[in-house]
Structure formats: structure tokens, C-alpha cells
Design brief:
Number of helices: 1
Order of helices and strands: EEEEEH
Structural class: mainly beta
Strand content: 35-45%
Number of strands: 5
Strand order of the largest sheet: 4-3-2-1-5
Distance between the termini: 50 Å
Length: 111
């Protein structure tokens, strides 16, 4: 990897670990967003198109490993990209609670 000018910011293919629990592979660049620096990662899909773009603050990054484009693409193909919205995020709201039930009725709160 060649040295970049100070003002160019980070721009490399990486394996990114978030809080030590998630791994993403893709092309990462440093961006200014919401008044601060963030890392943007574009995760490539099997056909080469970007399947996910995510932004992370520096405090969320557990480990950042610069790799070659080939290694990042192979890693991304082997790991499934995290979808922006999961089924869990989209659970339907519980039905409206009837007025005559107790606040913590197990029939009303099935989960």
C-alpha cells in the first residue's frame, strides 16, 4: 500500500471488524458526515455490484485490516452481507390492548 497525502483520507480495500462481533469486507473510505469523520464501507456482491453501504464511527471499529481487492472480494463472497433491515426490525406492532386487561397480561405480550 502506498502512502497517501495527509489530506486524502483513508481509501483502501479492508476487512473491517465492528465491536469485535461483525466482520465486513469491502472498499472503505474516510468521509465527513454529521460533523465528524466516519468510515464508509461498500461491500461487493458476487457479481461485483455493491450489495451494502454502511457508515461507522471510529469508536465502533474494533479492527481494520487493509488487504488486496482480491482478498476483500473473496471474503465478502464467503460472508453474507448484513441486510440494512432484518425481519426482527419489522415485527408487526402488538394488537391494541383491551381496556379490561391487566398491563402485563401474557396473552397480550406473547414475546
Amino acid at each position: 500500500m502506498t502512502a497517501a497525502p495527509e489530506d486524502a483520507g483513508f481509501d483502501a480495500w479492508v476487512i473491517l471488524e465492528i465491536f469485535g462481533h461483525r466482520k465486513l469486507a469491502g472498499h472503505a473510505i474516510e468521509v465527513e458526515m454529521a460533523g465528524g469523520k466516519m468510515l464508509r464501507i461498500d461491500v461487493p456482491g458476487p457479481d461485483g455490484a455493491t450489495v451494502a453501504t454502511q457508515f461507522y464511527g471510529a469508536s465502533a471499529i474494533f479492527c481494520l485490516t487493509p488487504v488486496t481487492e482480491e482478498i476483500a472480494r473473496r471474503a465478502a463472497a464467503n460472508w453474507s452481507a448484513v441486510p440494512p433491515v432484518t425481519k426482527w426490525d419489522m415485527l408487526p406492532p402488538p394488537p391494541e390492548r383491551p381496556k379490561n386487561r391487566e398491563p402485563y397480561d401474557p396473552e397480550y405480550y406473547p414475546y
